[in-house]
Design the sequence.
């Protein structure tokens, strides 16, 4: 399968310019690309202007690519016109399966045959969404590239193909997002919610249960994260956090010591059985991530990160009208 | 019930000086208090010295209280001796119910009758832990004050009493932790895992299921948080994050629009039914938290926080031996 040489791409298309699609537009502009936008809303250009203006100071602070121009975009109501001359398409239509199916089929038909088409969907698999595409060669170029809000600041993009996606397309998409500065997780198979949203959603569902049962208020739930575990997560994910909490013994100690408490009714989600294989997989993953760094080095890095994050966020809270974020 | 005037307290006791107990010692020292430590391990003083030395630079960066002295602690193997002359006790023994029951009964018997005794437990309720205390007046002074690792940097403390805890003791403990600079969540009733750990644990359990089923690696799970939602959580908890993701329509829009997807099999945890009451409670909580700030002000604050957090963490990653945190 011949795919466009990504180093030649200077213009991309964004299909749908709401919160997520508009965020992609701002990001592509900051990376020095021109953007052709398809959005049927009469106020699309006004909303997009406001979104880009709000986003630009943060993007400037993080560093713009050479030639980045916050005005290098046009809005079109004709799809073929929006796709004219672009080297990549990012679809960010509302999360409506029928709409996505139709739109992706239209894009796949209209776009040149060497163009990869990424979808921002958070809720559907590409296997489901490509159902309306008759031509296998067209379906082969469709891949999920799932961002996080706001897409212009959160690095993560989850990349996963459907059952008709060509492996080379998934590979190309992962390289493309990486080349424009995203942090890519390439998944081997489709899982509902992908990875980060599954984890977020488990937390969110437990939070809703707690509100439902009068166990915690909205304010308590948010503060329990912002003043608690949320301060650790920008540097260390949940696995490394527990690895470090285990002291010198690390995750192995945590699982061997607290493994039984996995069976406690701490959340409404039942825990998996802690088999030796699961234990060893988790321990090995943590040890690989930590590498040669000593326990003391890791503690100091974690502490420095928490202090820096607290100071950064406190500074912003002070400047926010009405106080705490 | 007569309780110690907290403004007169200059010395506290820490019972147990492992990772959590030792972290409390470092924190109390930084707040200008002297600490008497009970810990039966022969190497307790050495481990504590190392923990305090590691913690002190971060505590200094955040600001020490007047008179804070990193040497103002002593270790004792006799409990009565450790409690001599202290104005507050923080118990941080290992999470072993029988051990905690015995130890809390011993502390409650030995400590003066106007002293509050806080427990760092993450896994047990005070109702369970106070079972070995015969005297109701002694049981009345026992309360959970649950910190997060490292206790010297993470502000959150969850405060909740057992069924024999005096309401004035819970009140006193909440005021005390607040007075020494902690961010207190006072819970009205005992819930296994309290609040933050229930939320963390839901995420953690879903992560273990994903590893168990080969859906994600340890590395992917951690990166999905550190490069994704983890960057938003120091400023905004999960509720406000969704409120802002809803655009001008906020949480009401999110729940009305995405409510049905709550029923999707996105995690192994089933969602609660989104009743009108639950919807309204969550929406009202978000609106109250946001107050009069405009959507654009909130977007700019969120963006500034994400940029500051990314820059802070990137700086630390660069200095960490072996690269990424």
Sequence:
């Amino acid at each position: 399968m011949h795919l466009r040489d990504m180093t030649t791409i200077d213009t991309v298309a964004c299909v749908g310019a709401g919160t997520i699609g508009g965020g992609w537009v701002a990001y592509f502009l900051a990376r020095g690309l021109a953007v052709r936008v398809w959005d049927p809303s009469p106020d699309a250009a006004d909303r997009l202007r406001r979104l880009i203006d709000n986003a630009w100071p943060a993007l400037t602070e993080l560093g713009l690519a050479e030639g980045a121009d916050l005005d290098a975009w046009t809005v079109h109501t004709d799809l073929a016109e929006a796709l004219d001359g672009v080297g990549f398409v990012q679809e960010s239509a509302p999360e409506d399966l029928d709409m996505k199916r139709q739109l992706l089929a239209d894009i796949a038909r209209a776009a040149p045959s060497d163009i990869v088409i990424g979808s921002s969907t958070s809720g559907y698999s590409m296997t489901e969404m490509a159902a309306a595409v008759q031509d296998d060669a067209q379906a082969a170029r469709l891949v999920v590239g799932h961002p996080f809000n706001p897409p212009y600041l959160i690095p993560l993009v989850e990349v996963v193909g459907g059952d008709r996606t060509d492996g080379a397309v998934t590979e190309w998409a992962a390289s493309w997002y990486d080349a424009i500065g995203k942090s890519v997780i390439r998944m081997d198979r489709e899982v509902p919610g992908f990875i980060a949203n599954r984890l977020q959603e488990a937390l969110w569902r437990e939070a809703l249960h707690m509100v439902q049962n009068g166990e915690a208020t909205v304010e308590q739930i948010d503060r329990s994260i912002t003043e608690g575990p949320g301060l650790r997560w920008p540097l260390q994910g949940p696995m490394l956090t527990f690895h470090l909490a285990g002291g010198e013994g690390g995750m192995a100690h945590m699982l061997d010591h607290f493994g039984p408490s996995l069976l406690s009714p701490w959340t409404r989600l039942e825990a998996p059985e802690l088999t030796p294989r699961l234990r060893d997989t988790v321990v090995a993953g943590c040890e690989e991530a930590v590498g040669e760094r000593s326990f003391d080095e890791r503690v100091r890095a974690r502490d420095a990160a928490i202090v820096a994050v607290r100071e950064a966020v406190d500074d912003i809270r002070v400047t926010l009208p009405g106080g705490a974020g």
Summary: The radius of gyration of chain B is 22 Å. Chain B has two domains: 6-186, 228-319. Chain B touches chain A through 123 residues (CB under 8 Å).
